[in-house]
Write a structure and sequence with these properties.
The complex is a heterodimer of chains A (235) and B (842).
Chain A (H helix, E strand, L loop, with lengths): L1 E3 L7 H7 L9 H17 L3 E14 L5 E5 L5 E3 L1 H6 L5 E8 L2 H13 L1 H32 L3 E2 L14 H9 L1 H5 L2 E2 L5 E2 L3 E9 L31
Antiparallel strand pairs in A: 1-2, 2-3, 2-5, 3-4, 5-9, 6-9, 7-8
Chain B lengths: L27 H7 L5 E2 L5 H6 L11 H4 L1 H14 L3 E3 L7 H4 L5 H14 L4 E6 L14 H18 L3 E7 L2 H14 L4 E5 L13 H10 L4 E5 L4 H11 L7 E4 L5 E4 L2 E4 L3 H14 L3 E2 L7 H11 L13 E4 L4 E4 L5 E7 L5 H9 L3 H13 L3 E4 L8 H15 L4 E4 L3 H9 L6 E6 L2 H13 L3 E5 L10 H17 L7 E4 L11 H15 L4 E5 L10 H15 L3 E4 L4 H13 L7 H7 L12 H9 L16 H11 L5 H11 L2 H21 L5 H25 L10 E6 L7 H12 L3 E4 L6 H10 L4 E5 L6 H14 L4 E5 L5 H6 L4 E2 L3 H12 L1
Parallel strand pairs in B: 1-10, 2-3, 3-4, 4-5, 5-6, 6-7, 7-10, 13-14, 13-20, 14-15, 15-16, 16-17, 17-18, 18-19, 19-20, 21-22, 21-23, 23-24, 24-25
Antiparallel strand pairs in B: 8-9, 11-12
The chains are: A alpha+beta (235), B alpha/beta (842).
């Protein structure tokens, strides 16, 4: 459940997309700078994740009427309408936290003080890397669900929809993420290292419309442990 | 020195806090443990045991001390039966920040200590875990706030009857230091400190075992070590790296391997037998305090108990090297090795540095740090002594910011003890203090700070009678300083004597006296190190670098350990590197051959810091200023460079424009029109963000060249001031990219940008706006959670600076939100902000 991921490359087109690229022609100098940042990000990054699967204990509403999914063996509750919809019919929930580590954070800090063009490019590279790390962690949850004969939907993070940011402290505590990954929270509930992601994945007894539709376009493809066994997460 | 003594000003700690006091040690066995003469066995995991008993993930286990003390007592008792002498209280996260309003810190500690006592523990260790928030500068938590959280725990635990403290699972050396200082200043009980390392041999924040051992044992930890993170086999080599550097006993509490899930249950796979085997290896290496962390059980502890029976502590060899440390790395010198202290971060006689410190624009300082590190500095001197600035505040800010750009240990260079103390207190490492001297008052002011904060110190050989002319006179002052240090238990290897360089041109007996003094100090005061700033020697002579180099070589030969020089001067580093071959430090001359093979005997030209910085940070290396196909006219070329975002050749080309025309032409006819084109291209989507920024960066290099030229010609009045703008990311928000982009563009348009950084409290913003009567303030927020802080800041600005217009921006904002928080303008991007600035300020 605590994992390090071997991520050997960063998708350049993703990095460019984060910077608002729309096919502009670039000088060789800028191209070189972007490549340099991606390389540096891979070398200082330490993509790691921690995840656990909790059974769904029940759903209901809080006193104030907020929809709520309760999980067994943890005080973590998944609140909000969007969460209720995301978890509708789920029998278990994979809870995950990933980070690319303090090395990336320190580099961002250094660039913020010394090279602001570099900071923008490096930040885009680091965002790409942490999303990739989340793909890898999600793949582990999908595989663990598959072992139990369950089908996964996709990851959903606090702060999106109406899932409250206040979920963060309990979620991180439930995964012991500070100790395992070094993720801390500010009192405004932002994670440091900033290039960290928390999310939940629903696990269902039946295949979901939102289950990864095909292996070709699946973000977890490179990290999938099901395919090598001759199966897919769709059965 | 300022009239302010070290004990005036903000009084947050007891007045006698710098007076070394003895420890309150429960009994003779524990005293022997602290001397490293006997073993001590701690308990194993609490969390794992509680989870096995059904504690829900995500709950605060500390509250069980109050709600289910019997359960906690049972876990403790099981470890006592297994042979644990020390029971660690169930208080890992029991700080005010984590407990919130669920319970008070005092309640939890009182209940937790009671549980441990009732379980029959011989010693009760009050457990202090991390605060849960990351400290500045990487995180938002100020050092003093972390200290406050720990101090509250320390007082509660001491009052509840604990026998010692275990500060554990620390990833951040600054946080470990805050906790240790909280124990030292609020209790006289022993403190054990352990940090947690990963497979890469570093903590999450990058601290090495050596840096932890050097810093924490110097700071007065009674035991230092490693806990959690890894299994015992992986901890063993790391704890062995600590042993030579810790001047106190060393402890290890490994996990029972790494956690994994079997059938939905978290399990650890290293059993008691395998665990004990790895621990035995650590005992053989010199570890004397053991126990367990996550996944260990009473069976593990019982097996360790057996291991200790009939065993005596292994002999240890603690190095007496000079060693200082940053949060990441140590810089150590064995006898016979020489080191380089970079002298450039010091405003004395340096116009650009003075300007940077005055204006608060620290980019220049940061680049200077990076440059010196690249050139071979091993320690960076930091001096913020300018009469017109708040030295204490600027010093602390520099020390904090430098951690972001350099991993080199710092030398805190100040005369005012209050400045020194403020800087070393929160410095996450072991600093070198520059300096004390032989004056009784100075020693009384500075040496207690050196001792209390576990620093090394430079001692200048001067006293009430000035600088002695003879070597013997200098030696006698050195003796006096060393004697004072020894009275405070400051070890000799932490004392570095500066025999003080005097100009050869005024007194030609001086060079020999200095060299003799170095020789005498090394001979008569074995263990003490020496340091020298060499460049004064050549004052008043031509070809100074040659004289400096020759003197440096002579000083090394006399026994000099640390040279304070400008490492960016090639000639000086040539002397250092070649001396290391002659002294045998550079084994088989490997470094020298690798770096000097093929070098000619052309006298190296001193490279100016600015030039080198520009050359080093220029994205693509030395691309020619005129590429094929580019226009030959300098003005047109400068324009092209801005559009292409190439800052490297800008200084040269802009200098040419100035030579051909004048500075105002370069601004109004070249740079500004080029930037207008850039803005237009960005608007139309022909440029995307990094291109806009690279262009801004190139233009900035051009503006700097113009500014330097105007300054040099003394026609400062010709460049019009366009007004100041305060920018920052609001309180609680740590994202600063957007703010940085805005800053770059505004600077380009000639505005004086006062950048307050990120996570800035409303009052700090208001104060900055009021101070310079600033007419435009830019606030950035990336997260919804921090928008209220934006509204609060604007409200305060309306009250305290009603003249100031406010522009807001950031990912979560839109025109409606901007109106809601009370802003005057919403800017969707940086170019929009620049347009608003023109509207407001002209």
């Amino acid at each position: 459940m605590v994992e390090s991921y071997d991520i050997g490359s960063i998708d350049r087109s993703e990095v460019l997309r984060y910077m608002g690229y729309a096919g502009q022609s670039m000088t060789a100098e800028l191209e070189g700078r972007i490549d340099g940042c991606m390389k540096r990000c891979l070398s200082v990054g330490g993509p790691r994740g921690v995840w656990r699967i909790f059974d769904v204990e029940g759903t209901g509403t809080k006193e104030d009427g907020t929809p709520c999914v309760r999980l067994a063996g943890t005080s973590l509750e998944l609140l909000g309408t969007s969460m209720q919809k995301h978890m509708e019919g789920a029998v278990a929930v994979g809870v995950m936290a990933v980070t690319v580590g303090m090395g990336v954070e320190r580099e961002l800090r250094r660039l913020s003080l010394t090279d602001r063009v570099g900071q923008v490019v490096f930040d885009a590279a680091a965002t790409t890397l942490v999303e990739r790390t989340a793909d890898a962690c999600e793949a582990s949850i999908v595989a663990a669900g598959h072992e139990r004969g369950l089908f996964a939907n996709f990851r959903f993070s606090p702060g999106y929809g109406d899932m409250p940011m206040a979920t963060q402290p309990v979620l991180l505590q439930a995964l012991d993420a500070q100790r395992q990954l070094g993720i801390t929270l500010t009192d405004t509930l932002l994670m440091v290292p900033t290039k960290s992601v928390t999310a939940v994945v629903g696990l269902f007894e039946t295949i979901q419309p939102s289950t990864h539709a095909s292996c070709a376009g699946c973000p977890c493809f490179d990290f999938c442990t099901i395919r090598p066994t001759g199966h897919t997460c769709r059965g | 020195m300022s009239a302010k003594g070290p004990n005036t000003g903000e009084e947050r700690w007891p007045k006698d806090r710098l007076v070394p006091h003895s420890r309150r040690v429960r009994d003779e066995h524990l005293a022997a443990v602290l001397r490293g003469e006997e073993f001590l066995l701690l308990d194993g995991a609490m969390g794992t045991q509680l989870q096995a008993r059904g504690l829900a993930a995500g709950e605060l286990p500390e509250l069980l001390c109050l709600t289910n003390p019997a359960e906690i007592r049972e876990v403790h008792a099981s470890y006592v039966s297994a042979g644990a002498e020390v029971v660690t209280t169930n208080t890992f996260g029991a700080n005010a920040a984590k407990l919130g309003d669920t319970a008070s810190v005092a309640e939890v500690f009182s209940a937790a200590v009671a549980c441990a006592c009732e379980a029959g523990a011989r010693y009760v260790a009050a457990d202090l875990g991390p605060t849960g928030q990351l400290l500045e500068p990487m995180g938002p938590l100020p050092f003093d706030d972390a200290y406050g959280l720990f101090a509250e725990q320390v007082r509660a635990a001491d009052a509840a009857g604990a026998d010692l403290f275990v500060i554990e699972t620390m990833a951040d050396l600054a946080e470990a230091k805050a906790a240790l200082l909280a124990v030292r200043e609020n209790s006289d009980l022993p403190a054990f400190v352990t940090m947690t390392f990963g497979e890469d041999g570093r903590t999450f924040l990058g601290t090495t075992p050596e840096a932890a051992a050097v810093t924490l044992s110097s700071l007065g930890a009674d035991v230092v070590g490693i806990n959690c993170g890894l299994g015992p086999a992986a901890v063993a080599p790391l704890v062995k790296r600590m042993l030579p550097w810790a001047s106190c006993p060393v402890m290890a509490q490994a996990n029972a391997g790494l956690p994994h899930v079997v059938d939905g249950v978290t399990t650890y796979d290293v059993g008691p037998e395998e665990y004990a085997e790895a621990v035995a290896g650590m005992l053989d290496a010199g570890v004397t305090v053991i126990g367990g962390c996550c996944g260990t059980t009473p069976q593990h502890i019982a097996r360790e108990h057996e291991l200790l029976a009939g065993r005596v502590p292994a002999e240890r060899h603690v190095r007496d090297s000079f060693a200082v440390s940053s949060a990441q790395e140590i810089c150590s010198l064995d006898y016979g090795q020489v080191g380089v202290i970079g002298e450039r971060i010091n405003p004395t006689g340096k116009r650009l540095m003075k300007e940077a410190l005055r204006s608060g624009d620290h980019d220049y300082v940061m680049n200077m740090a990076i440059e010196q590190g690249r050139a071979g500095a091993q320690i960076l001197d930091v001096n913020a002594g300018l009469p017109e600035i708040d030295e204490r505040a600027v010093m602390c800010q520099l020390v904090s910011e430098l951690q972001g750009v350099s991993t080199l240990p710092l030398q805190i260079d100040a005369a005012d003890p209050a400045v020194i103390e403020a800087a070393v207190r929160s410095y996450p490492g072991k600093a070198l203090i520059n300096s004390t001297n032989g004056k009784a008052q100075t020693m009384a002011d500075v040496l207690p700070i050196v001792k209390h904060y576990g620093c090394a110190v430079v001692g200048l050989t001067l006293d009430e009678d000035g600088i002695p002319a003879t070597a013997e006179g200098r030696l006698s002052i050195a003796r006096k300083i060393v004697r004072e240090c020894e009275q405070l238990d400051i070890p000799r290897h932490d004392v570095v004597i500066d025999c003080l360089t005097m100009a050869a041109s005024t007194d030609q007996t001086q060079p020999r006296a200095i060299l003799d003094a170095i020789r005498l100090v090394k001979q008569e005061l074995p263990g003490v190190r020496t340091v020298l700033g060499v460049s004064n020697i050549s004052f008043g002579l031509p070809f100074r670098p040659l004289v400096n180099g020759t003197f440096l070589a002579a000083a090394f030969s006399a026994g000099l350990d640390l040279a304070i020089i400008n490492p960016c001067l090639t000639r000086m580093m040539d002397v250092v590197d070649s001396w290391r071959v002659l002294s045998g430090e550079d084994e088989s001359a490997q470094y020298f051959v690798a770096n000097y093979a093929g070098r000619g005997d052309r006298a190296p030209a001193p490279v100016s810091a600015g030039e080198k910085a520009a050359a080093l940070s220029a994205g693509a290396s030395a691309a020619p200023a005129v590429a094929p196909g580019e226009p030959a006219d300098a003005a047109a070329r400068a324009c092209e460079l801005v559009l292409a975002g190439r800052k490297g050749p800008m200084p040269e080309v802009v200098s040419q424009v100035i030579a051909e025309h004048d500075p105002m032409y370069a601004i109004n006819e070249v740079l500004i029109p080029a930037l207008d084109v850039v803005g237009e291209r960005f608007e139309k989507g022909i440029f995307f963000l990094p291109q806009l920024m690279a262009s801004a960066e190139a233009a900035k290099a051009g503006f700097e060249t113009i500014k330097a030229a105007v300054d040099a010609s003394g026609q400062g009045a010709n460049v019009p001031e366009k007004g100041s703008i305060v920018v920052c990311t609001v309180h609680g928000d740590i994202h600063d990219i957007g703010k940085n982009i805005v800053r770059m563009l505004l600077e380009n348009y000639g505005y004086n940008v006062i950048d307050l950084g990120r996570d800035v409290p409303p009052q700090v913003v208001a104060d900055a706006v009021v101070k310079d009567h600033v007419r435009l303030c830019g606030l950035s927020a990336l997260m919804t959670a921090t928008v209220p802080a934006m509204a609060e800041t604007i409200e305060l600005l309306r009250k305290e600076a009603p003249w100031c217009k406010v522009v807001v921006g950031g990912a979560v904002l839109n025109p409606e939100y901007a109106k809601m928080v009370g802003a005057d303008f919403y800017a969707k991007d940086a170019t929009e902000t620049a347009r608003i600035a023109v509207e407001v300020l002209g």
